[in-house]
Amino acid sequence: MTNQPTQQWGSRLGVILAVAGSAVGLGNFLRFPGNAAENGGGAFMIPYFLALVFLGIPIGWAEWAMGRYGGRKGFQSAPAILGVWCKGAWGRYAGVFGVLIPLGVYFYYVLIESWCLYYFWEYCTGGIGLDPTSNIDAQVKATRGFFSEVTGDAAHGALFTNGIHPMLLAFATTVAVNIWFVYRGLSKGIETVCKYAMPVMAVLGIVILVRVLTLGEPEGTTGQSVSDGLGYLWNPNFDKLWDFKTWLAAAGQIFFSLSVGFGVIINYASYLKKKDDVVLSGLTASATNEFFEVVLGGLITVTASVVFVGIAVTAMGTGGSMSLGFKTLPMVFAKMPAGNLFGAAFFLILVLAAITSSLSMLQPTKAFFEEALGVGKKVSTSMVTMWGLAGNAFVLWHSKGLTALDTIDFWVGSFFILVVAAVQIIAFGWIFGVERGIAEAHAGAHLRIPRFFQFVIKYVAPAYLIVIIVGFTVRNAPAYVDTLLGNVMTTVAPDMPTEKQIAADFASHDNPGSTLTYAWKQVDGVQVQLDDAKAKKPAFPYKEPPDAKNFKVKFELTVSEGTRSGSYPVEVECDVESPGNARLTWYFLILTIGGLVVITALGAKRWRAQGRDLDGLHPAKD
Amino acid sequence: MLATLNALGWTFMLVSCIGVTWLTYWCFKKVLTQPDEPDLPSGLGP
């Protein structure tokens, strides 16, 4: 049995672009600007860059070095490699999450990819049918209606009723492309795609960026200029630095954007040779991701959105990637000269960003099947295709309210990533030993890791990560756990017309230093208890009764600023069916985890029978 | 009210964008101009 990997990268640039391609995704263009705008604008960049230096880059270096070292022992999957670095079975089974994450995220990510493809196709063939002369409320309704139709979020199986929705063709195309390139292998498949897709994305992004920055103040729009758009995103609000949420958001953005702890870098790096550089390659991949995120993501989307649809509508879209990309920007393209062309170019960027990421999600799972079960690439590709399709079908069918997608995204695509990263940095800094680990990283390196990173990797990054895990869990997990237990949390917020009315009534609404106060009072519906009746967007819990159906609750919102005040009616729907959907999703995830654990156990048995050093008791041979 | 990009906003935007662009350029330049497999000794940096 040879310890040489069966596949290798074609070139150093190829692997860098493959890792960068895995990292650059929808979050760079859509999530980052929303996060920055909401959390202090320019001031957000302080915790953001601190997280990059003290968390993202060092953990990335550790993951690159761990992967290459595992590859020298003939292992390519996270369970096997973490078993070696953690010197025992616990690391191997923690490594199961390093396969679950890319596979689980693929379950829904490929759907989002197919939405992008569908939007791209629509813009190529005349747009999504928005009337730019209609009022903004009508446009908001139209974009939301289109998004709802594409995602089928109105009801389970919505895409399969009334015939086959064309979106399913986009889905089938996306899956076929992914499977084909993964089947072709590392060099001919993933590397080739990334070597073309990344430069194309950069060029298209720069073209759109130049167009956005030269928009000026287009006639017939909101009267807001490019400078207003940039000011909305970049003017610093230093008060936000005292809010823990800002630091959490910055670290989260860096973390999830760089794809560290995802199970991908460790797999990709395992195909490197002993003297292939990991320090410069890791830094280059991170820097590339930052270029796409800060320069292209930070200057294009929100700026264009403010110019064409105003701050109130833009602010509604910055809460999440989906809203800004699929609901707000189509209104921008409808008003922009040559909007269909720019819409097509923008969604092409998203398609390319998504495909370079989704390819990276399949490869770790395929490699895991091959080395744990000893199967060839045809069988492993078939297995990953079938498992992936089962997950896709689950999310595609359970589309109501996108609960299944959201549940997997939170637990697999967010929480477990932090856990895997923690295991990795502890294994690197404490079990393997930080000096030995950095020496391993330096083999073949064109760049030396500065000495102070020894301290960062051993103490700062783990401590930083623990704070992030605790903060993330305390802030976000209770709502998801509550949902699983049948307690529904419903957020109460004004709808778009009401939001606009408030903005018009209170001129300072757009000011980050606004002193608006809010008071909520329930006026109709099943009696509920708001968690904070003076919050801008309070929430109320509701215990899921048997056979409950969704219901509506009416509130009166009183907004005040100094001596001025106004009252507004607000109606929200309580989705009491979501706990059932979330639980069903968890059953599916448990089945997936169980399957991966069994395969890991079979793999361990197989590696032991082959006399492989699966517990990392001996140094890797050159 | 709307806030046009102010001096601090300009500063944060330019420093951030120029910083990551320069870092990306520097990294790629180094990657593309280095030989494939150097034989540097392993160990901590200075």
How would you describe the overall organization of this protein?
The complex is a heterodimer of chains A (622) and B (46). By secondary structure, chain A is mainly alpha-helical. Helix content of chain A is 66%, strand content 6%. Chain A has 22 helices and five strands. Chain A has helices at residues 12-23, 26-38, 45-72, 78-85, 89-94, 97-124, 136-151, 167-184, 186-213, 226-234, 244-258, 265-269, 279-299, 301-317, 321-335, 339-373, 377-397, 403-431, 434-442, 452-484, 496-505, 578-609, and strands at residues 487-491, 517-524, 539-543, 551-561, 564-574. In chain A, helix 8 (167-184) packs antiparallel against helix 17. Chain B contains one helix and no strands. Chain B is an all-alpha fold and 46 residues long. Chain B is rod-shaped, with a radius of gyration of 19 Å. At the A-B interface, helix 1, helix 10, helix 13 and helix 19 of A face helix 1 of B.
